[in-house]
Amino acid sequence: MADKIRLGIIGANIHRGWAVRSHLPAVVASPEFELTAVCTTRMESAEESRQMFGARLAFDDYHKMLAHPDIDAVAVSLRVPNHYEPTVAAIDAGKHRYNPQAPPAHPPPPPSTPWPSACACPTTTSPPSPPSTPASTSTPSGPWDAPPPRPRK
């Protein structure tokens, strides 16, 4: 492997999303990574991202990016419902990957199917339950207990 991790970012659109505000600037500023490739659904926006952040390669198909030998790892910077397919493709391509919100090990069950019976995997368990404490005496211990965010003015 090279001195730096050669990273490709899937979802590197500079006009919207997290990549332009967070992932791309952080990777460029990091001494541990080289922004090797960017990928969007359109070559025009991929080229814009490549030029703005100095990536060597631009792609409009993540499968082609994952097949490139100069990519060591990928960051999936897409909306969470769209993480699964690119992440599985990265695993199949033998690439290291970073997902801010990693998808489950297999697709979630359809909404009409109860959680435990939908999975053929014998080691699957139900998601953890929030702690049960009276609301009047509890202090927030996780996102399920936190008060809703205040509206912006």
What does this structure look like?
With 153 residues, the chain is α/β, with parallel strands linked by helices. It has a domain at 5-98: Rossmann fold (3-Layer(aba) Sandwich). It is 27% helix and 15% strand. It is built from five helices and five strands, in the order βαβαβαβαβα. The protein has a five-stranded parallel β-sheet with strand order 3-2-1-4-5, with helices on both faces. Helix 2 (43-53) links the parallel strand 2 (33-39) and strand 3 (57-59). The N and C termini lie far apart (49 Å).
Low-confidence spans: pLDDT under 50, at least 5 residues?
115-124
| Category by helix and strand content | alpha/beta
- Total helices: the number is 5
Cα gyration radius (Å): 19 Å
Q: Mind telling me which CATH architecture of one domain this is? A: 3-Layer(aba) Sandwich
Shape category? globular
Beta-strand level of the residues, as a percent range?
A: 15-25%
By CATH, the superfamily of one domain comes out as NAD(P)-binding Rossmann-like Domain
Query: N-to-C SSE series?
Result: EHEHEHEHEH
Helix content bin: 25-40%
Average pLDDT across residues?
77
What name does the CATH topology of one domain carry?
Rossmann fold
Strand order of the largest sheet: 3-2-1-4-5
